[in-house]
Amino acid sequence: MSFDPRRPFNELPLLPPQAETETLPVLRKAISAGRALAELKGLGGTIPNQEILINSIILQEAQASSEIENVVTTNDELFKAFSAPNQTFDPATKEVLRYREALWEGFTELGKRGSLATNLYIKTYQTIKKTQAGIRKTPGTALVNGAGGIIYTPPEGEAAIREKLKNLEDYTHGKDKTDPLIKLAILHYQFESIHPFTDGNGRTGRIINILYLVQQGLLDLPVLYLSSYIIQHKTSYYRRLRAVTEKDEWEPWIMYMLDAVEQTALHTRDRIVEIKALIQETLELAKEKLPAKVYSKELIELLFHHPYTKGSFLVDAGIAKRQTAAEYLKELEKAGILRSHKTGREMLYLNVKLFELLSN
Fold first, then answer.
1. Same domain membership, residue 298 and residue 236
2. According to the per-residue pLDDT averaged within each range, which of 78-82, 93-97, 147-151, 334-338 is highest?
3. pLDDT tens-digit series, residues 72-91
């Protein structure tokens, strides 16, 4: 039976794919992507405090992944909202922060249970969309192009969707010899094709990608900035997804995903090198310009946990009491390291050079 984009694709084949997926070009690309990922994993462990990576790179991944779905905010709004959650921000910024929350919740849950399963997919989706809804139950979901034409109708019926998700789980945890990065591409195609939720499938699927790499031991922290590649090559992403569905063309899709892993691993690795260098540069500048009673290595490293800092961060870290913390921040602004911003009733201090680095 030929594929009809207007008919629910309940015939979506179960995994593993019957077509050849480990071609010679794919295997070669998997080796180079794996090498780049290993470099990233090794370098991540050299950062003095892992929270520096978690709060900067994960927030940018959240922003980029949401932008793919046309949920757009600025770096500045996002970083302010993360540091001052009690203030009022626009709905798009709040939705991006929920993506970050979902990714971090998934990472924490994975650390406790050690497995990716349907319940984790549902919880991730619910956090992103701030909903209690679960697997799609009603018909009518279809993917359309810019002109409104239907390009794909995912499987319908909760039982059918759950059956395909169970197969996805089994394949994820199955003991076979498929390279885990090749498997990642296959898993991502299958999840997006099942399209188990009424909305938020793309973002949920991209979180699952990163969690899978952590589960496989290819990353220690969920810091791969994968969505940046998809934004830059968005047309190819959707075209190659459809080519698997319509023509069973797996190789171009897998090559695309392997290149996404390799390029973003290299990009994230370079970003970590830049952050490390900036921390060292800031330590030296602070030692030169700050009064001796203010300067400490712990204080300067804290400024890299979030692009925006406030007095309570210093208090919570045990660096200074409330009044002293305010004085320290003013001294840091006087030294040209921070810049103050009034946000609502809170005074935030921007790490100017870190913000410029992350926004580049």
1. no
2. 334-338
3. 777 788 888 888 877 778 88
Q: Give me the number of domains the chain comprises.
A: 2
Indicate if 137 and 261 belong to the same structural domain.
Answer: yes
Q: What is the pLDDT averaged over residues 34-39?
A: 96
Q: Residue 140 has which token pair?
A: 């009518």
Over its C-alpha atoms, the chain yields an Rg (Å, rounded) of 22
Question: Considering the domain boundaries, does residue 14 fall inside one?
Answer: no
Q: What is the mean pLDDT of the chain?
A: 91
User: pTM of the full predicted structure?
Assistant: 0.91
For residue 283, give the amino acid letter. L
CA 151 to chain CA mean position, Å: 26
Question: The dihedral of CA 240, 217, 69, 16: what is its sign?
Answer: positive
Give CA–CA dist 115/215, Å, rounded. 7
Distance CA 154, CA 145 (A): 15
Task: Identify the domain containing residue 315 by its residue range.
Answer: 290-359
Q: Within this chain, do residues 243 and 306 fall inside the same structural domain, yes or no? A: no
φ, ψ for residue 348, nearest 5 deg? -105, 155
Assigned domain for 4 exists: no
Nearest to 221 by CA among 56, 31, 29: 56
Indicate whether 208 and 331 sit together in one domain. no
Contacts of 76 (CB under 8 A, 6+ apart): 355
